Amino acid sequence: MSTELLSKEEKLRILKTLEVNEEFRYAIAGALGILIILEELKKLREDFNKRFELSEKRLEVVERRFEIV
Length: 69
Hints:
Layout: H1 8-20, H2 22-32, H3 34-65
Helix pairs in contact: 1-2
């Protein structure tokens, strides 16, 4: 008796379904918590972009202070 829950064929069928069925892929991703991780990464990228823009503005101010008139 095998201790495997899924046969090789079942595993291959699931992998193929993940490839071709977007709805199934997102359902599995959600079940694994991947969607939460992706949302957090999106927030981090947005925060990074805001901080980068603020740094750019500060640098422009500093450069103007050192311009020779």
